[in-house]
Design brief:
Blueprint lengths: L1 E7 L2 H10 L3 H4 L7 E5 L3 H13 L6 E9 L10 H13 L8 E6 L4 H4 L4 H6 L8 H7 L13 H12 L5 H10 L8 H13 L8
Parallel strand pairs: 1-2, 1-3, 3-4
Helix pairs in contact: 1-9, 3-4
């Protein structure tokens, strides 16, 4: 039986996880775990409304399942992240999965909120070579409020920077940032929930500590 099946809304989230998960053993002290990532063809709305049906065939071959998507685009924008996640987790637990082995992550507002870290590595990945620091430019141009750790509209801010640097938008950006940038100070609740789930599910065995 495999360790983890992940259902995501799009290739950007998939790429980010492919960059992040291999780091968890070294950064967060998890044990090694294997994982497979599936992208739902109906993206955020599909993850919200069709994840139970999509993941049902996997419950006998994977120990854990997790659903990750943007709250924006899910059709549940007026509900809280907690209500959205609880709805999916309850449904999964009623359809073949053990309640303690499933999780839903609704990123509020979208996955770009996870990649915005004030880091030299991020600036390099976005080809930022301007005299003004990237986060200072974001604030000066109305993308970030003063002293805020992330842009107010993370997806639109990323697209604005890519237009300025003339870097093509691709999923590889998400993977490269996840592989290189430190997320230890990230305070996004959805991201913290993901990390805590991984640490709980894949805690090192007593023999390995």
């Amino acid at each position: 039986m495999k360790d983890l099946i992940v259902l995501v809304a799009d290739k950007d989230i998939k790429a980010l996880l492919e960059g992040l998960f291999p780091r968890l053993e070294h950064v967060n002290g998890t044990s090694q775990f294997d994982f497979d990532i599936e992208s739902h063809p109906n993206r955020d709305n599909g993850c919200m409304n069709e994840s139970v049906e999509y993941l049902r065939p996997f419950c006998r071959t994977y120990r854990h399942a997790i659903v990750i998507f943007d709250k924006d685009g899910s059709g549940q924008e007026t509900n809280s992240r907690e209500i959205i996640e609880s709805t999916i987790e309850t449904a999964l637990a009623s359809n073949g999965w053990k309640a303690e082995n499933v999780a839903a992550i609704a990123i509020d507002p979208e996955v770009e909120n996870w990649i915005w870290v004030n880091s030299v590595n991020m600036s390099k990945e976005l080809n930022w070579n301007e005299p003004k620091a990237l986060f200072a430019w974001l604030q000066e141009n109305g993308w970030r409020e003063q002293d805020a750790s992330k842009p107010t509209r993370p997806k639109e801010a990323l697209e604005a920077v890519l237009r300025k640097t003339k870097k093509p938008r691709s999923a590889s950006i998400y993977k490269n940032i996840a592989e290189k940038v430190s997320f230890t100070k990230c305070e996004d609740p959805a991201f913290l929930k993901l990390i805590e789930k991984m640490k709980s599910w894949f805690a090192p065995s007593e023999d390995s500590v």
